[in-house]
Description:
Blueprint: E1 12-19, H1 23-31, H2 33-36, E2 52-54, E3 58-64, E4 72-81, E5 87-95
Antiparallel strand pairs: 1-5, 2-3, 3-4, 4-5
Amino acid sequence: MTDKKPRTPVKTLVQEYTLDAPREKIWRALTIPAFRENWLPQETLRDATPSRVIPGQEVTYKMQDTEPPFLESVVTFRLSARQNGETSLVIIHELTDPKLIRATDAANSNTPPLMCAA
């Protein structure tokens, strides 16, 4: 018998970068569709209109995978100015698809849980 715990799927991915560019330039790359299309194509976005915007600081987009199982997610880009004209970029990618939420059994089902035999 092992003491290993089952792995739970990661539903949030956080990445942090320091970019050698002013915050205003990064903001334009995130919010102007012609610039954004170069690195975040339209087909990966569920909606090209941001779902949340804090001007100059944060923008959130809803996304959908282009291949099965077509999971939905939300990606947030947070910007903050650093010294020497650099910008801190934090990307938070969260899986929000309802297919990932496991249905729970009814508490009053009056049936014993079944186990699979090997």
